[in-house]
């Protein structure tokens, strides 16, 4: 269990570092997929199977696909390499040092705490969740549906190009 936790945590951290450091947007999006799958694995370790399923279905299946399509439609797959002495690289070093200092402070502050053991998770009543979605939570559910429809219509409009069939290159 501890080995799996360390492996998934390393997977999430490595993927997150790749997301913010890779110059190729497509590869960064694939790294985001690694992060999202790692988080789903962490949910499985916490015995939250439903959250792991939702994580994979919504974030990996839908959101990541939307990000990949957006990258492919904008045709900005390659970044331009920076120079080693650029101000941006010095800012990265400063940001990395600040993040390391923050991590050290937070790790030192939380180390002496006695963390209580979490109670065992019960079975998720999926029928009750579905009933709540179509009764009490119907308005937010429908608003999210409309947002998804608007996003799909917008993606189709962007992909089809301007009226008249002429596409800029």
Keywords:
169 residues; mainly alpha
Question: What would your notes on this structure say?
Answer:
It contains six helices and no strands. It starts with a helix and ends in a 9-residue tail after the last helix. 73% of the residues lie in helices and 0% in strands. The chain is mainly alpha-helical and 169 residues long. α1 packs antiparallel against α2 and α2 (25-45) packs antiparallel against α3. It has helices at 2-21, 25-45, 49-74, 87-110, 126-134, 138-160.
**End-to-end span in angstroms?**
52 Å
Mean pLDDT: 79
Biggest sheet character: none
Tally the helices: what do you get? 6
What percentage of amino acids are in beta strands? under 5%
Shape: flat
Please state the structural category.
mainly alpha
Short summary:
The chain is mainly α and 169 residues long. The protein has helices at residues 2-21, 25-45, 49-74, 87-110, 126-134, 138-160.
Please render the helix and strand layout as text.
Elements: H1 2-21, H2 25-45, H3 49-74, H4 87-110, H5 126-134, H6 138-160
Helix pairs in contact: 1-2, 2-3
């Amino acid at each position: 269990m501890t080995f799996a936790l360390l492996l998934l945590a390393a997977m999430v951290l490595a993927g997150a570092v790749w997301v913010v450091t890779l110059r190729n947007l497509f590869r960064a999006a694939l790294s985001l997929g690694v992060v999202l799958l790692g988080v789903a694995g962490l949910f499985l370790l916490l015995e939250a199977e439903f959250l792991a399923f939702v994580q994979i279905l919504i974030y990996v299946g839908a959101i990541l696909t939307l990000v990949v399509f957006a990258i492919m439609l904008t045709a900005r797959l390659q970044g331009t390499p920076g120079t080693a002495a650029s101000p941006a690289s010095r800012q990265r070093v400063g940001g990395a040092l600040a993040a390391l200092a923050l991590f050290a402070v937070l790790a030192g502050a939380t180390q002496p705490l006695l963390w209580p053991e979490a109670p065992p998770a019960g079975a998720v009543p999926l029928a009750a969740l579905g009933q709540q979605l179509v009764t009490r939570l119907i308005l937010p559910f429908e608003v999210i549906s409309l947002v998804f429809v608007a996003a799909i219509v917008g993606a189709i409009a962007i992909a089809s190009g301007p009226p008249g069939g002429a596409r800029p290159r």
